[in-house]
Every structure is written in C-alpha cells, then in structure tokens.
Amino acid sequence: TSSGLSDPKTFSGGGGSGGGRGGRSDRRLKHNLRFIKNSPSGIPIYEFNFKPEYSHLVNDTNLYTIDVSARYRGVLAQDLLELGYQDSVFIQDDYYCVKYDEIDVDFVEV
Question: Is the dihedral of CA 62, 7, 76, 14 positive or negative?
C-alpha cells in the first residue's frame, strides 16, 4: 500500500451490534500523533501511540490488549464529533470511544 506499512494487525470489536463497546479514541489518551490521510468519507486517519499513563484505560474494554509501546493507526473521536458522526462516538469513564464498525476506518497496529 501507499502507506508503506506491512501486515498491520487489525483490531475488531468496534461496537454497534458487538455490545456497543468500542475503541478508546480520545485525543487526550494519545501522543506522537501524525496525520496520514483522510478516509474515503473524509475522516482524518492518524498514526499515534497511547500515553503509557493511560494503559489501564485503553486496556479495560475486554476486546483486545493494547501495547502502549506500539504504534497504531486510527481516528480521533473529537474529529468524528466535529464531522457529524455523533452516533459513532460514546463516552466511557469520561473519555471518548469510537464504534469502528460504523466508520470506514480500521483501528490497526502498525
């Protein structure tokens, strides 16, 4: 692909019919953000790391385990709210989460 990434690990369990749970995608939980491109529907896609001090929050969804030393590609919930995707965002423990199965972006380890 044009991103130059090989064999990214895709995480499932965005939400919606899967119990309504999704990935922690709050800007406050991430650092080292780098814009990659917009999805076909115009959602900004970033590569980022999760802040180590929030590892207990990003790993409590029981959907997957996040390695805070790894790099990921996905979205920022705040961008989705600004773009009108309110139904694909919810709040858990005062942080925004995204139902990735309702948008045209995957959450992947890169």
Answer: negative
**What whole-number distance in Å separates Cα of residue 2 and Cα of residue 28?**
28
Q: What would the pLDDT profile of 32-51 be if each residue is shown by its tens digit? A: 999 999 999 999 999 999 99
What the block records as the tokens of 78 is 């705040």
Both tokens assigned to 24: 């922690």
Contact 22, 90 (CB under 8 A): yes
Q: Specify which residues 103 forms β-bridges with.
A: none
What is the average pLDDT across 20-36? 86
What is the chain's alpha carbon radius of gyration, rounded to the nearest angstrom? 13
What is the sign of the dihedral through the CA atoms of 83, 16, 90 and 54? negative
Q: What is the pTM (predicted TM-score) of this model? A: 0.78
CB distance 101 to 15 below 8 Å? yes
